């Protein structure tokens, strides 16, 4: 079936080639099945045939070939180099997780003592977080006004404020990057993700919150494949493929590039009432496969606004998306609780209110492991230097009350 | 008996054997040759004035007359927004024919020792043509837009026994008999008379001018080298150029350098095809540079093969266009924002 899908794309342009690469990467996991690798390789070859100049197709092909022990990875890599492939420049490796096996963190020593192991293990139950970083994206106004959403900007703004609030989020103000509306171009969102990658070390916490449209490729209703940025062209499929951000790009960043042992991804992709129908199809939430991929590694939690077959809604009386509104309430009411403890309350409230309006919306939660809960409100170790919480409590007190 | 038949076949039909080369039964493919304009015209109105340096020279006069109408037609054909406006042109295109000649010379067969067989052994006719034109494009106010000397040479040897042998044969793609008018199934390039040869040269000059000023798109027929490469050629026929090039690049080089030259030539064809398909001018330029390199390597490996020469000229013209290109061709035009709609 994949072969047929790929063949259908043959002889088309570079935008389609990019989507074929995205499709191949969607098959990647830390321990991929051989069939997935073979299908991925086939898609990448089709991507090259559709657009030989797509260096990323050649680069990822070399990785797939290496993984499969087939083909000529050196040749493919040479082609990627000739084409100055962006994925090669940034040394992307979707097969290698940035965080090691669940429950245990492996820490590499720069200068191991002679005879000593070059790695040690570290108990990740230890809740200490050195720094906390957040990328918050909310797109309400789009370059194409037909796509405009009412409250996504407000959602992002409120999340950023809550994270910076010394009482609740306890993030340093300059560690929260808010990108909204016309600033939320594909380039800026990618730059934001790179900022997070660069900033968050393994002892840190990283949070990604995105509120915008999520779209599926035309022939696919298995969940959102792309996130719509301010400048995404949704008039044509080619435009969409080349100007939206593939969901797999975000999952790859979380899986393989962010080194932080605590990462939360929160996606509120809003219902568009057919605004995107000309190009893309609903549903607009994450597919189970995407959820599985994004949580690979250690300390990854994902909250999505709705199930794959559902949409998420905005509610005028709250001036928020339903999901984000209750998430904000939950985070305020249980400020020291981990997200997996807050989620049941949020989903119950969202489902109840949605049903009262004749809708169906059930937020989804998924995590890589149960032993490393993510508490957004935890005080970072350097908090004393910049945070003056009311009542003079220090971070040790906050840890002690943190539910486990 | 079978062996005898096979031997006879081998002796009588050497051209059909699977050696490296282009073979008598040529394998050709057609490429869409897209070239971006080398300069940007200041407006859509234009006028063309073609003159002969020596109006009394019949060849020059004929060439100038033909050139004027062919440049006008070519420009409008490639860009329908352009209009001929002799009264108020935004661009004035001036062409002057400096040299025009078309000469046919009898060719006599030569014995292996270099001795001529004699006048009765006429083997064909060699036709040489030369057209030199200066071209200038200026705005109505006289501002310089573009200028280039154009030099077209036509060298064709018509051989009654083996068919045409010349570097332009592949363009013409036919084997005419000298002096005889062919049936009208060979295409318009068929050189039958002196006037036909002038027409071919003028057509090339007009294409050259058009390619400077507008985005052009022409179909180019290119021969593929055959022999051990026949299997691989099916990818070219299917338009799978990436696979075509990859197979050629990863196969072991052919044992003899002059044979391997044909593999290198085919890689050049693949790179050239990828260049025409490329979406970004930078990529197109890179493919053309690679194609030139492969064609040159092929020429060095087998200097006897005339077919390796012309592609280099063709690609160098393409390269020149891409080098001068400042705005990517086909760059998406600014979209008019749709009317503001209401979302939920």
Q: Strands of the biggest beta sheet of chain B: in what spatial order?
A: 3-2-4-5-6
Span of the ends, CA to CA of chain B? 87 Å
What is the CA-atom radius of gyration of chain A, in angstroms?
21 Å
What is the tally of helical segments of chain A?
15
**What low-confidence regions of chain A span 5 or more consecutive residues with pLDDT below 50?**
1-11, 102-126, 272-283, 390-404
Sequence of secondary-structure elements of chain A: HHHHHHEEEHEHEEEHEHEHEEEHHEHH
Largest sheet of chain A: 6 strands, mixed
**Strand residue content of chain B:** 15-25%
Structural class of chain B: alpha/beta
Q: What is the structural class of chain A? A: alpha/beta
Q: Mean pLDDT across all residues of chain B, rounded?
A: 78
Would you kindly provide a written description of the structure presented here, covering whatever features stand out?
- The complex is a heterodimer of chains A (404) and B (344).
- Chain A has 15 helices and 13 strands.
- By secondary structure, chain A is α/β, with parallel strands linked by helices.
- In chain A, α2 packs antiparallel against α3, α4 (55-68) runs antiparallel to α5 and α7 runs parallel beside α12 (322-333).
- Chain A starts with a helix and ends with a helix.
- With 344 residues, chain B is an alpha/beta fold.
- Chain B has helices at residues 2-12, 58-78, 169-172, 194-213, 230-237, 241-250, 257-277, 281-301, 309-323; strands at residues 27-35, 45-52, 83-84, 91-108, 122-139, 144-159, 216-224.
- In chain B, the strands form two sheets. Chain B has a five-stranded mixed β-sheet, covered by helices on one side.
- Chain B is flat, with a radius of gyration of 24 Å.
- Mean pLDDT of chain B is 78; it is low at 4-17, 161-190 and 326-344.
- The A-B interface holds A 10-11, 13-14, 45, 48-49, 51-53, 72, 75, 82-83, 143-150, 233, 235, 239, 271-273, 275, 313-314 and B 239-243, 246, 249-250, 274, 277-280, 283, 286-287, 332, 335, 337-341, 343-344.
